[in-house]
Amino acid sequence: MPKELTREQQERQDFVDNACQNLLNQLAGVAIPWNIELIGEIRDAAQSVIVDNLQMMTEQKFYPFTADEKGAVENEPDLSSVED
Q1: Helix, strand, coil abundance in the chain, percent, nearest 5
Q2: What is the mean pLDDT of residues 17-29?
Q3: Phi/psi zone of residue 15: left (φ > 0), alpha (ψ -120 to 50 degrees), beta?
Q4: Sign of the CA dihedral running 62, 1, 8, 37
Q5: How confident is the prediction for the chain on average, in pLDDT?
Q6: What pLDDT digit, counting tens, does each position of 47-81 carry?
Q7: Which of 5, 30, 68, 82 could lock onto 9 through a cystine, CB 3.0 to 4.6 A?
Q8: Is the pLDDT of residue 5 over 60?
Q9: In degrees rounded to 5, what are phi and psi of residue 40?
Q10: SS3 state of residue 46
Q11: How many alpha carbons lie under 13 Å from residue 67 in its C-beta half-sphere?
Q12: What CA dihedral angle connects 59, 21, 5 and 64, to 10 degrees?
């Protein structure tokens, strides 16, 4: 897998993120400031429906990523059971 996204893959990421922002604005009825964390939550939910439930495309096609990006996500330690 390439280490950098192609222009088309970057455009797909922008399309998905902008669609999530537009959905948030439309459902809220007001313009919500750009917040990638909120956009990411909506993107994850949409990906779950489109990729996992409907099986219409792969995760890579839905929101392209590089091996390094995906590896960083998958290899993060689970700290949910660690006490403060």
Answers
A1: 60, 0, 40
A2: 98
A3: alpha
A4: positive
A5: 86
A6: 999 999 999 999 999 999 998 766 554 333 344 45
A7: 5
A8: yes
A9: -60, -35
A10: helix
A11: 3
A12: 0
One-letter amino acid identity for 61? K
Number of neighbouring beta carbons within 10 Å of residue 42? 17
Please give the C-alpha separations between residue 10 and each of 31, 46, 63, in angstroms, as whole numbers. Answer: 24, 18, 9
pLDDT for the residue 3: 81
Question: Is residue 14 within 8 Å of residue 6, measured between CB atoms?
Answer: no
**Rounded CA separation 2/74 (Å):** 17
At 2 the pLDDT is 60
Per-residue tokens: 3 = 């280490």
Are the CB atoms for 32 and 38 separated by under 8 Å? yes
